[in-house]
Amino acid sequence: MGHAGSRWQASGDSEEEDEDVAPSGESEATLDACSQWRNKVGFWLLGLCNNFAYVVMLSAAHDILSHQKVPEHNGTGPIPPSVSPANTSINTSRYDCNTISTGAVLLADILPTLFIKFSAPFCIHLFPYGLRVAICVVSAWGSFLLVAFSTSTTQSLLGVVLASISSGLGEITFLALTSFFNSAVISAWSSGTGGAGLIGALSYLGLTQAGLTPQDTLLFMTIVPVIMLGSYCFLLAPPPQAPRCGWGVCKPKSPRALSVAQQPLLGSKTTLPQATQRPQLTLQQKGQVVKGLLKYLIPLSIVYFAEYFINQGLFELLYFQKAALSHPQQYRWYQMLYQAGVFISRSSASCIKIRKIWLLSVLQCLNMVFLLAAVSYVFLPSIYVAFVLIFYEGLLGGAAYVNTFLCISKESQLEHREFTMGVACIADTLGISLSGAIAIPVHDYFCHLP
């Protein structure tokens, strides 16, 4: 384990000589099977830890808007009117609503990420990887503490913002970092982010169901950022071409070492001289690269708009009064089943590859329209039908995510790959942000119906 950490920060003369002669196409071959396995596990854990706080905040959205108070029996039975705070429900509506839509939590959880992802691809190269990871770890750790000890919804939403900063910066950092490794780590990262959804939602559901308060549950989860730090520092076994970044600024020994260190893997001996001489992409060149990605970015954005409109606009309104589960329990189960579908599809890239991302966007929009009609006209016969539709929603979203990044990785030019992997993650965040903004007025409309 310590060997990985030392390689990540090493800059000895002998290693510099190896970097000057190592062809990028052979870089992954220089890693033994154990190192390649460690890289896959490392990126899986990074994906898990990076998205964990983000997922937990959405799973806890219903509790956050109720000031983290769990009713008697921890939400396992009917809520007596005396227990439910007067300001958390709109009693005149046929829907059991919080006064604030869970879309507000979604916006707090995604808008900082949107800002980071829009600006980072054009300036993030100025900051070393180690510093970015440190910011992610501290932000995630602080988000759990701030929400756990909050005394108001505003303070809770500030904690959610910290989780968003950690997740957004982490995603653009680690996806860019995959360009220096074998493409197999993309599937590992994607599976890890799907695992974050399942494990995060399931752990929050399970711990609160077992009797822990939301506060104790969030405090227990502060171990996750520590795992992220350990995975980055000690588990990854970076190839020779990966940037030698510790917690300070990267300082390769020579210009040639710098150019080789920036060269992604998967190249060949014939492409090495050209990559060695390549300049940094200009702003105009970056714009042209983004234009070429639109065929993937637009469908991915639509998929995420539809699914997060369902999650944060409709989940709370999709309430079955005759079900054995209470309203908070139903919301947590919806989140868990959605994340289970995401995990399965994000882990399926080695079995099923989909190039027509637009087809997934059409299917997700149809799913959104159907569930919107179900909320409006209340025609679903059972909560179990909703469970199936929500699981299906997660399958579509996860498939769109992993296949989009695999297609971009394969089709991007080598000298553009680090930039494209970072900038592509803007699409899902943009779709999520738009859905959160629309979910709030939709929530208010339904909750004011007689």
Describe this structure in words.
The radius of gyration is 23 Å and the shape is globular. The chain has helices spanning 2-9, 13-21, 33-59, 61-64, 103-123, 129-148, 153-177, 184-209, 214-220, 223-235, 255-262, 272-277, 283-314, 327-346, 357-377, 383-411, 417-423, 426-447. The protein has 450 residues and is an all-alpha fold. The model is unreliable at 1-29, 68-91 and 245-278 (pLDDT under 50). It is 68% helix and 0% strand. It starts with a helix and ends with a helix. It has 18 helices and no strands.
Q: In which range does the helix fraction lie?
A: 55-70%
Return the average pLDDT rounded to an integer: 77
* Low-pLDDT residue intervals, each spanning 5 or more residues: 1-29, 68-91, 245-278
Shape: globular
Number of strands: 0
Structural class based on helices, strands and sheet pairing: mainly alpha
Largest pleated sheet: none
> What sequence of helices (H) and strands (E) makes up the elements?
HHHHHHHHHHHHHHHHHH
Cα(first) to Cα(last) distance is 62 Å
Q: From the alpha-carbon coordinates, what is the Rg to the nearest angstrom?
A: 23 Å
Q: Work out the helix count.
A: 18
- Residues in β-strands, percent: under 5%
* Oligomeric state of the chains present here: single chain
